[in-house]
Amino acid sequence: MLTIADLQKGEKAIILDFPLDTIPLKLIEMGCLPGNEVMLIQTTLFNGPLFLTINGSNIAVRKDTASQILIDKIV
Amino acid sequence: MSDSMIKVALIGNPNTGKTSLFNHLTGLNQKVGNYPGITVDKKTGICKLSKTQKASILDLPGTYSLNASSADEKIAIEILNDSSNKFYPDLAIVVTDVEQLKRNLLIFTQIKDLEIPTLLVINMADRMQSKGISIDIPQLEADLNTKIVVISSKLQTGINDVKEAIINYASLSTKRSIAAEKITQNTITNPELVNSLSKLELKKIQHRETIIRYQFINEALKKSYKIDREKASDLQAKLDRVFTHKIFGYVIFGVLLLLIFQVIFEWSSVPMDFIDGAFGSLADWTKETLPEGMFTNLLAEGIIAGLGGIVIFIPQIAFLFLFIAILEESGYMSRVVFLMDKIMRRFGLSGKSVVPLISGAACAIPAIMATRNIESWKERLITILVTPFITCSARLPVYAILIALIIPSERVFWFFNWQGITLMLLYLVGFAIALLSAYILHKTLKIESKSYFVVEMPKYKVPLFKNVAFTVLEKTKAFVFEAGKIILAISIILWVLASVGVNDTFKNADQIITESVSKNGFNEIQEISLSNKIARYEKSLVEEAVEAKKTITALDINSAIAEKTPAFREAVIEDEIAALRLENSALGTIGKAIEPAIKPLGYDWKIGIALVSSFAAREVFIGTLATIYSVGSEGDDEEANTIKAKMQSEVHAASGKKVFTFASGISLLLFYAFAMQCMSTLAIVKRETNGWKWPMIQLFGMTAIAYIAGLIAYQFLK
């Protein structure tokens, strides 16, 4: 399965699912919900955080969080 | 608080302009405090609604929801769920950003569930046109069961409509926007539910709840919120391509930091000189005007000098916080947090530690208070523990005089000289030891705390003057009051210790010195200090003549000097008496008592006194040395040179070797770089960590590092 961590810069995807116990509630509240669109805007050196647009908001999350969010790429 | 006052609570997501609205409503009638027992900022203010009516406004911390997952959110829920709470509002104002309306409405639907009169404020109306947004307000009001006011905190439109709505709060709807039966297990209206469930069960319910709320919001917005994507400009994305670039992003941040520090030093030197002079003259004036005695001395040497020691740092601190506020308001700081997170994480810190660490270059007190938004307790604690290693303003005067003493001022290349390079190295050493100790703490501290990192990257915007000004004011106030009371108290204690004699020498100091001088004449050092005074007087005479465009002959100068010399001799004797008194005071005894401990570092008991006094605030070092070396405090530029000359000629009593050599100087510089010599910081750390454990670890740990560094430096270099 693909996750947000597999996205390339500029790629869009639809959020499918994520493990509820490890994903911060704050991310869910900000609109990280199944069915919503996510786009990768920017990455950082040394596998640092990812800069995403989720549900119209710009959000930075660490890679370990991003790699738990399953997606379906929009081509 | 009178009963007629309307109680208003402002609530909303971060970056919605909630604080701007608060500033517009309350102006300068605001204060920042703490909720009892926890470290969440409590901002309250008074708003004048009409000639007769006022409202008290509570600015709740910016949160994304009312789900109690952080201290900020818990406070909001506690207040809004308990009608007997003294902050329980008559009405809640939810502030939203027109561009982020969907996400911002989540918390609105939660507030509505509490059935409090609620007003919805949609901010940033000035952006609607450029972003191609249109809203059918009556339709949205009907769907959400609320009254809506559209404002622009930037253009200050709609503020009066908000005030009017506050006056008529009784007419606001208290009906929920989402029908109660849709959310069967509502954690907002039923806080007991939260405690009865396991963490995962609770999260499942909150997850489901969030989905239902978003479904409702999407339905409502579909009818009334239109956005023409064609019109939306992509300037924001272009800015992010530059500012968060993998390489340029770091380059830009580095250059920006250098520029900021350069500018702070340039700008603050003028007001600092002025403050220094003003307090010096005030102390002199006090001594001359008031009748001689204990109280006058306490006032002039204890209290006024102590106050001067606080006020002198205001320019540097205010300027640094000006820049930090601008960077935060503009949205840039969040990008820095994003860029720095991975690097900081290696050391057990968070990207959010960057702001406290930069602030630490001004003063550790507001810096430690700025750690509050770091979610992980472990990362926050480590940030708190290492921030005092960053070179703060109070270290600079100490560095300046020691560097001038032991480092040659030769130019190396271009505009660099060894002294400047040494200062820069000291900054880097402070930063390096902060990171190193963070790394060690990260590896050794056994604290389980979930480290998560979700940071909103707000839109870039031009900072609002009012918001920046209020932030600077608030941070500077934190320094003045938090540090001020302790610096003042310790200044007074030190003064007392220095004024209490422990033996007869203290009592008879004037007699001893006068007799010795009349019998043996001036010794070498006294002669130097006399000739220094004369030289300075001569220089001032020449300068005066030049300024008045008069010629002055050597003869004139000589006769003027001859006339003044007895007074100068008198002053030298006075200084000498003060020095002898200090040596035999309680403070001098303490200095001598610790001498064996600091001898391996190359210090004598006089430096010992200065080290002890530095616990009030580091810069007290210089003033103390001035007294010990009997320079007297005349409060002008020449004073520093005199102290320098004195320090240079100072020798160990036993061996006759110089006290201030390269080795002991470097040892002292490192000691000051690492030691925890700030009681005010310890007090703040105690408050932020809820106990004495961590500040004590900080005190002993940092001072141990300082001692070892000083010891190694001296033993290797001597």
Give an overview in words.
By secondary structure, chain A is mostly beta strands. Chain A has one domain (4-73): SH3 type barrels (Roll), CATH 2.30.30. Chain A is built from two helices and five strands. The longest helix of chain A has 5 residues, at 25-29. The two termini of chain A are 16 Å apart. The mean pLDDT of chain A is 89. Chain B starts with 5 loop residues before the first strand and ends with a helix. In chain B, the strands form two sheets. Chain B has a seven-stranded mixed sheet with strand order 2-3-4-1-5-6-8, sandwiched between helices. In chain B, strand 3 and strand 4 form a beta hairpin. Chain B has three domains: 6-232, P-loop containing nucleotide triphosphate hydrolases (Rossmann fold), CATH 3.40.50; 248-422 and 440-473, no CATH class; 481-519 and 570-717, no CATH class. Chain B contains 30 helices and ten strands. The longest helix of chain B has 42 residues, at 248-289. Mean pLDDT of chain B is 84; it is low at 633-637. In chain B, helix 10 (248-289) packs antiparallel against helix 11, helix 12 (314-329) runs antiparallel to helix 19 (465-499) and helix 16 (377-386) packs antiparallel against helix 18 (418-444). Chain B has 718 residues and is α/β, with parallel strands linked by helices. Chain B is elongated, with a radius of gyration of 31 Å. The chains are: A mainly beta (75), B alpha/beta (718). The A-B interface holds A 20-21, 24-31, 33, 41-49, 51, 55-62, 65 and B 64-65, 67, 69, 99-100, 102-103, 106, 199-200, 203-204, 206-207, 210-211, 214, 237, 240-241, 244-247, 334, 337-339, 341-343, 351, 452-459. Chain A: This is Ferrous iron transport protein A. Chain A: Keywords: Iron. Chain A: Residues 2-73 form the Ferrous iron transporter FeoA-like domain. Chain B: Pfam families: FeoB_C, FeoB_N, Gate. Chain B: It is a multi-pass membrane protein. Chain B: Belongs to the TRAFAC class TrmE-Era-EngA-EngB-Septin-like GTPase superfamily. FeoB GTPase (TC 9.A.8) family.
